[in-house]
Amino acid sequence: MNTPALSTPSFLRRMLQRWGAHPEGRKHPAADTEITVLPLPPRLILPLAQHIGAPARPLVQAGQYVLRGELIAEAQGAISAPIHAPTSGTVIGIAEVPVPHASGLAGPAILLDTDGLDEALPPDHTDPFSLEPAEIARRVAAAGVVGMGGATFPAAVKLALGQKNPIPTLILNGGECEPYLSCDDRLMRERAPEVIDGARIILRAIGGERALIGVENNKPQAIAALRAAAEGVADVEVVEVPSRYPMGSEKQLISWLTGREVPAEGRSADIGVMVQNVGTAAAIHRAIRFGEPLTRRIVTVSGGAIRTPRNLEVRIGTPLSTLVAFCGGTTEPVARWVMGGPMMGLSIHSLDIPVIKGSGGLLGLVEHELAALPEPGPCIRCASCVGACPIGLMPLEMAALIRSGDLKASVEIGLKDCISCGTCSFVCPSQIPLVQYFNHAKGELAAQGRNRMKQDAIKELVEARESRMEREAREKAEAAERRKAERARAKAAAAEAAAAKASAAAKTTEETTA
Amino acid sequence: MNPISSPHAHGARSVGRVMLLVMLALTPATVAGFWHFGWPAITLWCVTILSALISEAFCARLAERPAGPLLADGSAMLTGWLLALSLPPWAPWWIAAAGASFAVIVAKHAFGGLGQNLFNPAMAARVMLLISFPVEMTQWVAPHAAGLSAALDPMTALSVTFGGNVPDAMTSASLLGHVKSEASRGIALSQSLTGHWDPFSFGLGQRAGSLGETSALLLAAGGVFLMLKRVIGVQIPAAFILGVVLPAAFAHLLAPDQYLPPLAHLLTGGVMLGAFFIATDYVSSPSTPLGQWIFGLGCGLLTWVIRTWGAYPEGVAFAVLLMNSAVPLIDRVTRPRIFGRRRNGHSMTAP
To answer: Name one GO molecular function term (chain A) (predicted).
Structure first.
């Protein structure tokens, strides 16, 4: 009843799509447990960079008392998001602490000692449908909502795109194709009305016509709950998609649901589509209905080493060690801690790192859950990676080119189109770190680009200096010339005057003598 | 660069597991070959595989690498196995040894080892043997030639394999060889086929031919198993078979007395082994889906052309090697379309 009408060509196209992999789900037992609210930790660590774009600018000082929901750091630049106090307490200061980042380097964060009272600013109940679209986008921006699926792109920046040109189709991403993770699943099951309401608010903000919620078919209860919540909502439709990694990738989900491809050098808005994560929709619902900024999220804590895997509702800034302790600690030595899912998540080295807005999972993985071989074997050209690549690339060729140092050729055959989903590495029977090569090469290219920009800037400065010096020399010469001419003129004038004087004097003499 | 980066998980597939599945798929046809051709076939199979393994270990020594992991990936054993299946079942030991060591040392390691070879090692060895030792390589025995007694006697087998004593009375022509020689004497197919061609017994392998090529149906069953296990794709086998069947059917319709029926092409010689196990070799076949169709069709078509007009009665090995040499080119021109781009590489534009 709620399934979309499939046109034959798009049905055929779906049948012919063979990309992707089927990693073992491992979503249970975490997916079976209700969302539990994690008690407040004594201290919260709030990194200033919790989103893609410029880090936020702190507005508080050490010793300042803040309430839950209070703005403590403001957005800085066009792509940025503000940060709010997740609970009441005293700001300790701003320090460099370990933050979730691939480099493992420290970053600036606001430290907040909680007082346990959790006192909040008064809520601001608003009917979203009385608001102008631009006002919705403004309030979402003020609430600091970013993409909750892990990409952490400021949600309001996307909504603002809808102000510029019409985006008829909204897609809510309930794919959650990463193994282990079930935070979106639980959210959809337990808070489906929030998600549906969020979808309607976003539709209003972007002037959209319909919303499709794509959910992988391994979450039947989430689908049922959403469908029940969407009952009677004409413009929201819940669509079951196959469980296949990376179905949760924006481009793949759009293609599956609408049959249309996002241009390689364009954005989804170019084809009239916007994608938001289901968690983002729920956050937007809270931001608009209650004026509640984004200060908490659901995190799946799982992995073979975790005693009781579960889904926790966590204040942003809670140290990961608190989450692990709440889940009963570990039962086995942890071979690797991963923030996010196992396919694209970040390997982390310390549990002092805090939960940030984009953290959907914390995994304590044991040895046998990781890749089996310590050493990659030679490529046997089995083409598993070619068949699995959701973008239609030839990872084996790209990797060979990168290994031989020919970055340019690898770009020519599609390096920049790679979405780093890791499917190729996952399926490779020789366990060649394919996506790792691509990420490395992309980093290299970015560094080269930065270098080139720097060199260009230096060149420009040098050229500017040279031309300035030339100009100055020229001006100097001209000035000297001018002065010389002036002097000559003055001399001539003086000589003339002297001559005149002399002649006058002579005249006078003549006259006197006369 | 961060030494530990995503993905933090890996699929269950490994090179060794893939090779194992292929060997498993080959087992029914191999056992049928043993049954039809007796103990000499078993000793030949053993000698071929052993030679391949020894050659692999030898190359590992040359490269100063430990031989264990190299042997463990199963690729050398599979090469030996495939070569054994394409040899005359009562061939002498030195054919097996020379062929297997050529396959591993020259066709594989001289190109750089696993994953680097341009040509299918088993087929390269088979062609080398066919050209160098045409007599030994075309001495076929009829299934159950000496009656079960001789075929089941291990001592006789040793003298066949190691002494080279193949009694003339037991030799027999393969169907393709028979048809070719009859045709050269101007005898029409309708006559030469009489009493030599029976689809049913050919499908089961009760005919003269290579050790493991004769049981066409068992090979096809193994191939289907590999497809279901997603070890091989549908493209290459389907294209190979189409490449043989289409021209054969067309020619047979036009001149039934001159051209073999398509079913005879499918069930004799190495078509089934070639389509499911040889042409599908990862290393020496294209990586792109479209390229695999082209490659398979080329293999099939060339097989039919060589069988029909070439000097040799059988053409699978030549066809595969010829197409192998075209693989880099095929891969280059059949790259998949990149998501969000047109075939020419330009980004799609918004409608």
So the answer is: metal ion binding
Contacts of B2 in chain A (CB under 8 A): 102-104, 347
Structural domains of chain B, ranges and CATH numbers in brackets: 15-334 (1.10.3430)
| Assigned domain for A214 exists | yes
Asked if A394 is an interface residue toward chain B (Cβ–Cβ < 8 A), one would say: yes
Say if A381 falls within a structural domain.
yes
Put simply, whether B319 touches A (Cβ < 8 Å) is: no
Instruction: Reply yes or no on whether the pLDDT at A1 is more than 50.
Output: no
Q: Do A392 and B233 lie within an 8 Å CB cutoff?
A: no
Q: What per-residue confidence (pLDDT) applies to B152?
A: 57
β-sheet bridge partners, residue A111: A45, A93
A328 touches chain B (CB under 8 A): no
A407 lies in the same domain as A432: yes
Query: Are residues A277 and A399 both part of a single domain?
Result: no
Nearest to A371 among B10, B348, B351 (CB): B10
* Residues 181-240 of chain A whose Cβ lies under 8 A from any Cβ of chain B: none
Nearest Cα to Cα of residue B323 among B37, B51, B124: B124
More confident residue, A482 or A70: A70
| % pLDDT > 70, chain B | 94
Contact between B48 and B126 under an 8 Å Cβ cutoff? The reply is no
Closest CA to B88 of B19, B149, B161, B35: B161
Taking contacts as CB-CB distances below 8 angstroms, the residues of chain B near A378 are 113-116
- The chain A residue lying nearest B3, using CA atoms, is A436
Q: What does the pLDDT look like over A172-220, one tens digit per residue?
A: 999 999 999 999 999 999 999 999 999 999 999 999 999 999 999 999 9
Find chain B residues with C-beta within 8 A of A430's C-beta.
14-15
Shortest alpha-carbon distance between residue A18 and chain B (Å): 11
Q: Does A391 touch chain B (CB under 8 A)?
A: yes
Q: Contact, B54 vs B109, CB < 8 A?
A: no
Query: Are residues A263 and A309 both part of a single domain?
Result: yes
Question: Tokens 């292929």 label which residue?
Answer: B22
Closest of A423, A340, A344 to residue A387, by C-alpha: A423
- How far apart CA A280 and CA A267 sit, in angstroms, is 19
Q: Do residues A183 and A362 make contact, with C-beta atoms less than 8 angstroms apart?
A: no
A327 annotated among ligand-binding-site residues: no
CB within 8 Å: B9 and A429 = no
Q: Using a CB-CB distance cutoff of 8 angstroms, which residues of chain A are in contact with residue B328? A: none
CATH number, position A263? 3.40.50.11540
Q: Which of A297, A328, A361 is the last residue of a domain?
A: A361
Q: Which of A225-234, A304-313, A472-481, B95-104 has the lowest mean pLDDT?
A: A472-481
CATH number, domain of A393, equals: 1.10.1060
Structural domain includes residue A368: no
**Within a domain: A298:** yes
> What is d(CA B177, CA B307) in angstroms, rounded to the nearest whole number?
10
- Which of B5, B8, B22, B346 has the most A C-beta neighbours within 10 Å, making it the best mutation to test the interface with A? B8
Single residue among A307, A337, A361 that ends a domain in this structure: A361
From the list A375, A372, A370, A373, the residue with the least C-alpha distance to A337 is A370
Q: Confirm or reject contact between A435 and chain B (CB < 8 A).
A: yes
A397 touches chain B (CB under 8 A): yes
Would you state the pLDDT for residue B158?
A: 77
Answer whether A429 sits within 8 Å of B287, measured CB to CB.
Answer: no
Residue A183 assigned ligand-binding role: no
Domain with A399 in it: 374-499
What is B94-132 written as a DSSP string? Answer: HHHHHHHHIIIIIIIGGGTSTTT-SS-HHHHHHHHHHHH
Same domain, yes or no: A353 and A430: no
The domain tally of chain A equals: 2
A57-66 confidence digits (pLDDT tens): 999 999 999 9
Annotated ligand binding at A421? The verdict is yes
Q: Which pLDDT tens digit goes with each residue over B215-251?
A: 899 999 999 999 999 999 999 999 999 999 999 999 9
